[in-house]
Structures are given as C-alpha cells and as structure tokens.
User: Fold Efflux RND transporter periplasmic adaptor subunit from Mesorhizobium qingshengii.
Amino acid sequence: MSRFEALLDAARKRARPFAMTSIGMPSTDRSGARAHATPGKIQAMPIKPSQPPLSAKPRSAKPRRLVPWAAMLAATVLLAACSQEQSKAPAGMGGVGKPEVGVVTLHPQSVAITAELSGRTAASLIAEVRPQVNGIIQQRLFKEGSEVAAGQPLYLIDPASYKADYDSAVAARQKAEAALPSAQAKFDRYAGLLKQNVVSKQDYDDAAATLAQAQADVASARASVETARISLDRTSITAPIAGRIDKSSLTPGALVTANQDTVLTTIRALDPINIDVTQSSTNLLNLRQAISEGRLKISGPNVSVKLKLENGTIYAQTGKMEFTGANVDQTTGTFALRAEFPNPDRLLLPGMYVRALVEEGVAQNSFLVPQRAVSRNTKGEATAMVIDAAGKVEARVLTVRNSVGNNWLVDAGVGDGDRVIVEGMQLVRAGGDATGVEVTIDEATGEVKDRGQTSAVPAPAKMASSGQQPAPGASTGN
Assistant:
C-alpha cells in the first residue's frame, strides 16, 4: 500500500460515525403490561414528548462535523510528502544543484577565408549572325538549339545573281590576261630597236605604257573575280564560332539585306563559361589590410573559385579568377570580378543566378565560435557565455570578422581552452555556477548532435552523486 492510500484510509477511519449496537429493553403496551425483552431486536416503545429521542443526542453529530477537517488534514499531509519528494535536484541539474549546460572547447586553427559573391553566368563568346549580302533565304541548314561547329553552314541565300557576277568577273579577267602578252611583246621589241636607234624614244615610252596598262587591267580583273567570289560565298551563311545556337528569327523565303539590324540567330560558347560577380570596395580594403598585417595568408596568384547554384548545391567543377576590375562603380561602390569555369555538360546556361565562393586566403591561429553560442547585447555587440576553470559563468564581448559556415570567425574575446556555452544559456547568468558538458555541433546544420561527459567533474563521480545515467545526445534550441 502506498503512502497516499494509507493517508486516505486513516482519514476514512476518523470520519466514520459510531455504529449503533443492538440493544434490548422492556416495552409496555397501551394496557400497561410489560412486554418481555427480545434480545437482538429493537422493540418499539412509547416515548414521551418531553423525552428526546436517542437520535437527537448532540453527541452523535460531532463525528459528522469532523469529516471536512479530516479531509483537509489528509490533503495537507499529502502535499507535505510531495514537497519533500520535489525538493530533490531535478533533471538537468548537477549533483550539487548546478545547472548543466552544453559547451564546446575552443582551440586555434587555420581557417580558409572565402568570400561569397553573387553574380550571373555569361557566355565566354557570343556571335550574332547577320547576312552580308542581299537576297532571299532559300534554306535553313541547322537545328535550332543544337551545338554547331565553327564554319558550319546555317543559311543559304539565293546565289543566282552572285554566280552571274562571278562569271562576268572571270571573263573580264581572261580578257585582260589575253591583252597582256601582246603588250609585253611590243615592249620587248621596241626596247631592242631603241638600242639600234631604229625607233624613237616616244614609241618606246608608248609601248611601256601599254604594257603597264595591260598589267593593271589583269590585276583589276583578278580583284573583281575575288570580290565576286566572296559575295558568292556569302550567300552561304556559316557559323563564325562554335557553340549552342538559338532559334532562327527568319524563315526561308524572307528577304534579307546586308548588315541589317535584325539578327538571324545568335551563337553562344558555353564551354568554358564566365561568372561575372561584384564585390564592395570596402571588402577589398579589408582584405588587403588583413594581408598586410599578416592575419591572412594568400595561397598564390592562382585564385580558385567554387560555385553555389540556385538550388543550393555546389557545382562539381572548380574555376579560376580571370581578372579584377580596374575601377570602382561610383553609383554602387563595387568593382567587377570575372571567373571562368569548365562546363562540359552544359549545366550552366547564360543568365543563371549563382554565388561564387572565392578563396581569399588562410587565417592562421583563428577561433571558430558556433553561431548558436553568440548573441547581441543592448549595444549591438556580439557576446558569448564562457565557463572558466572555477566553474563560473562569464560574459565575453567578441570581435567577429565574418561567418564561416555555421560558425563565426572571431578575432578577439576568446582564447585557447575556453569553454563556450552552446546549449542551455537560459539556465545560467553571468557570475553564476554551471557544470559544462561537452557537446558536438553538426557543421551542416549548426545543431547539437552528440553529448559527451561532464567537462568539470569526472563522469563516475557525477553519476554517483546524481544517481542517474547520462542522457543521450539531443538537439535543442537555446
């Protein structure tokens, strides 16, 4: 029987009314004859009006009035017993009444500093295809949206008139070439006769001029043939670069003119592909200052870049920084950067929004404090709660540089071996006592994923004082 049931049973016994026992007494009938007493039965007998009945005795009402008082007494005793049980240390408290909090011990390490810059993808090469001769499009020789090679025919313009011009130019060249041997022979003959003084100097000069004119006619005819050939070749429009071709803006049968404003189609080279991003001039100054002060060590002239896509995934290929802008935009206060990435699978298309992760350098002997351990005071300063060697909670003001994953890169405010509270900060305050339990932070989510042993008291002594087993790791918010 539990203690609670025993207390209720005692209360019932105290409140139970006195039971009436069977009595026997003589009775008298109306004639005045006395009746014999019958044991075990209550005989009816006349009662005088002046005589009070047995049930009207005031003594019999006292046990009934004790019922509420007995219940109140039982409830009081029960509450006292519960208070004694609740006076024990609750879960989450140390063996001596100290609150248990999750801590992470800090140690200096080398941290790769990256800058996450937003930008857009852009094709490495872009070619707008326009006609260079007049005419009517006869055929479209490519599939829209496909990959084309440099020099591949795209459109065919009616070549009939250009073929006739070419033939005419060839005929003119032949005519000029036919007149050249006669002029050459006449000049050679006059040159020999001039030495014999058979012909005059004027005749010789006329023969030389005729030869030069014939040679010029041949050269002009040859140039006309080349011009006609170029115009004829341009009736077949070819791809100037290799890449992916867009849709065609005109169909066969359309009339086009040389160097028109309307673009027939556009070709974009997608492998490699460029990433155009911007960075503030303030970050550039901070970066160069950190390098000059030795807080940041650059890895070399070749800066590697990683890419985060719109859906949050990391692009498999690694790029490199191509150039940095030489001027700062006066409107936005930023300067341009361009990175180049391989794109063999054509996963990246021009115009996509991406975030470039640029490796700026390595910060040596730096501290990473979990972001869940850092809060802000009324002044807006970053603060963290630290347990010192004596088990006292201390509030520290931190100098935060930037974020690295789910951590803050801290320049000042913490030291080697400091135990920063990351779980249970609502249970402690600055100057109070606390028991630290080492926990493990999930780098992907920033949540607590595993709890270790108490860092201030050995595990066997702690379990002996508390009388309970350590709880398994659990992720909790602050």
Observations:
- The CA atoms of residues 247 and 461 lie 77 Å apart.
- The chain has seven helices and 22 strands.
